[in-house]
Write a structure and sequence with these properties.
With 384 residues, this protein is α/β, with parallel strands linked by helices. Helices cover 20% and strands 22% of the residues. It is built from nine helices and 15 strands. The strands form four sheets. It has a six-stranded mixed sheet, sandwiched between helices. Strands 3-4-5-7-6 form a five-stranded mixed barrel. Strands 1-2 form a two-stranded antiparallel sheet. Strand 3 and strand 4 form a beta hairpin. The longest helix has 15 residues.
Length: 384
Amino acid sequence: MAKSRKFRVQLRKNRSTRKRSGNLTRAVASDAEHTADAATSERISGKGDLTRKRMMSMPLPVGGDSLAGPVQPLDGTWRGQVLLVHGLESFVRDGTGTIVRCTTSRLLRTVFTEQRHPVAAGDWACVLGEPGDGPARGTIVSVESRRNSLCRWSRGRRHVIVANVDQTLIVGSAAMPDLKPALIDRFIVAAESSGIRPIICINKVDLVDPARLVPLAGVFARMGYPVVLCSTVSGVGLERLKTELTNRVTAIVGQSGVGKSSILNALDPVLDLPVAEVSRDNEKGRHTTTTARLIPHARGGSFVDTPGIRQFQLWEIIAAEVPAAFRDLRPLANRCRFPDCSHTHESGCAVKDAVADGLLDTRRWESCCHLAAHAENQPEESDE
């Protein structure tokens, strides 16, 4: 077993008492002898009851994305992959394939991080407890640094949807609900910023004339993104998807009702994931998947089925870096007259000239400008 390493971490401020009593004068006035029992000094070094830092032993610090490799478990612990996170409980698969129901240690929950939850589907965790002895249960005491992660902004904190994946399948629907190209752009920017390979999939092509989708599909295809038009009813495009997903860990993302679970059932009928029809009142999807879940499939890889997302707000996006996340705008932005060009009103803007000449898709330019403006004026707190 690896030798225990200690790290000094900051804890959340959720279990503190008042620093000093607010009725000292009243207490002394009513009982003069009370001054003998009162404290005459106060610690400010952070070693008292109100300290927010603590030494803890773990293989690696909690949170963060890095290229750090796997570590050896500590004494009495074992290493496993998180398949599902539901509240404070997680389901972790050990080296033998046994699924263990685990809780998250209190110390790990109170560590001060920017994340909404310290554990996410796809994480490699260090678990305390012996699997296989009676009811298999354990306690997650630490989480390894992530190779990559797909995350979004959620009420001022970082919501990690899935971690340690090879690629992400961005699913949209041709109809019911309507296709949202701007949402696809956001998923692509989030995936590329984390080093995740994006694949665009437009489902339910049997409901519309496929010729209507050619211009949009052509824009993404010219940038080098794999684009698949598919239908779980007619079976179009499913063989192409099977080829793309073989021997890889793939996160399936998209808004509610686009048919993510239906596509997975069509690719591997053994999964038998629950599905629901789109609401006829507002043509919006109904949530059948409530949390991200890592599912091994028959083609040598794994799916990560994620809940439907109607709004996807990028995490820590800087307005000046937005054009670099668009493959079609990136080479043009370097030829602008001003290095800090916003591509909206400046003269000598190569991006605007390309739009005017028909060399750049107008919708992509508008999507980039919208993301940049939103990043510049992003509030600190907001409800999604």
